[in-house]
Amino acid sequence: MEATLSSKYQITIPARLRKKFHLKPGMKLVFDEKAADLRAKPKHDFDVEAMRGALGAAKDFEPGKTSDQILRELRGYDRRDL
To answer: Which long-range contacts (CB under 8 A, 24 or more apart) does 33-36 make?
Structure first.
């Protein structure tokens, strides 16, 4: 499989690879500069704020707490003490 580098140094990733690796428009790729050949992989950004929002009440807790600590605070007790 091959792709041609344009005069603006752009390539089009073949459809088969886009589907295989679930690539979508706007996604970023990370290049491995230490590899002996050209390697790229999708960059997966982890949005902490979005994750907190998905967890509902956990968004009000400071970063670094474990889920056990958050549940203990929400319940007002530790289930292990029962």
So the answer is: none
